[in-house]
Amino acid sequence: MKNYKYIPGIYITAILLLASCTKDFLTLYPEGSLNGNSFYKTTQDFQQAVTGAYTPLRDIANNAFWMDEMRSDNATYDYFAKDRGNAATENISTFLDESTNGIIQNRYQAAYVGIGRTNAILDRIAGFSGMTDSLKKTIVAETKALRGHYYFDLVRNYGGVPLHLHEVLKMEDSYLPRASVEDVYAQVISDLKEALDVLPSPQFTSASTGRINKGVVATELAAVYMQRGDYSSALPLLQSVAGMGYTLMTNFSSIFNPANKSADKNKELIFDVQYQSGTTGMQSSFIYRFLPNMSTSFPLLGEGVKFNINTYGGWNIPTDNLKAVFEPGDQRFDATIGVIEGTINSTQDFVPTKVVSAVNYTPPAGVVTKYFCRKYYFPPYPNINRNTDQNWPLYRYSEVLLMLAECLNETGKSGDAIPYLNQVRVRAFGDANHNITSANQEQLRAAIALERRRELAFENKRWQDLIRTGQAITVMNAYGITAKQKFSYLLPQSFNVTQNRLLYPIPKREMDLNKQLKQNPGY
Length: 523
Prior knowledge:
By secondary structure, this protein is mainly alpha-helical. Among the domains are: 1-199 and 470-523, Serine Threonine Protein Phosphatase 5, Tetratricopeptide repeat (Alpha Horseshoe); 286-388, no CATH class. The protein is built from 18 helices and eleven strands. Strand 1 (6-7) and strand 2 (10-11) form a beta hairpin. The longest helix has 26 residues, at 133-158. It is globular and about 75 Å long.
């Protein structure tokens, strides 16, 4: 039962708590509800509250792939003629979304839930004397890093947003006008820099799994600077991360295997959103979204699965455009994109038979094929529908290497950039035979961008990469022309990508509640 009141993205007084926790480990427990006036009495209360402030990361990740990946030329949806009830999600992919879109609302709201929780912690801890100064500084730093993360997510997707920096205790305090983009970014940078100075370096122990540390903050702060085109400020941060003990996993697919989600098993994961299967409501369901709509799931999900039809899927389908960018011998292709063979039955449902490799694949005669995102496919799955342990990656060390290469190249050090790019390519191909040996700045810029696309496909990076490199309008309009030629169901007005479409609309519900808000142009 929840006893809070929601107003424009902010919770009044009450803070939803995810868990109790130790000093380091992000322990997951069912979400409950406590009133702020009866809470914050002990050190453990504040530790619980910090853990609760991580929870909206899951709510954002559950919606982000529509807005970050399917907005790009990496992914599309499997058109299902029998069920036309998915227009809101399809419209994000085709640039026909409106301010009433529920996915856009959910993400906006989740970020402000996180901000509300962090603000409550920061305001309450200021006058609390029941813990050591060292622990208080650590809690404040971790909390500010989370707040910075949530505002970074908002400003990239919606532009300038209301800048709430204190707990909302009165109705009138909840309604603020939009701050400028510059002011929001300034706050993000301020929060992350404060956290960077305090938080410890990564420990790579099971007890540190899921927690924000110095490596997480340095990586995200560098991403913020790169989003702003400030490569010089990003570079030393990334160089510091390269010296913190992170390493590449030998096998690309193993990075994403839930069996390797612990920090002591996977030194490539810098920051990922934590999920836990079971009956506590903290499970993930990504693979069910990414598999096709099917009449039966038995052949694909494992012997333990007892349920039948999956009408949840058909999203994040690899495009032909994405398939074409992988070079022969690139092991990431097989780990990222798979093929499902099957047939169409008398009621026009897809009946799968097996998953096969997409490498050099030619469909056999009489077989219906469906491509899918294989990156998060690790059967067998438990006998609970849409319930997995699959975490969602936010930052990996391979991305840091590519960020380093980009920053060096953009600051006139192209020769120094190439070794970082090649570290990623050596893992992808299993040898150094595909290394880039020389390139000028323009050539290397294109090579790094292409490598990011291959390495980070289906990790919600492509759309923002297109925006920050100034390619979104050109690339997506060209992609749209090809898509409309191939798919007759696409409306003529789809893929009309203009400057206005580089931001999502402020959700209509927020506009209705807060009359001080002004909508983004074009919506």
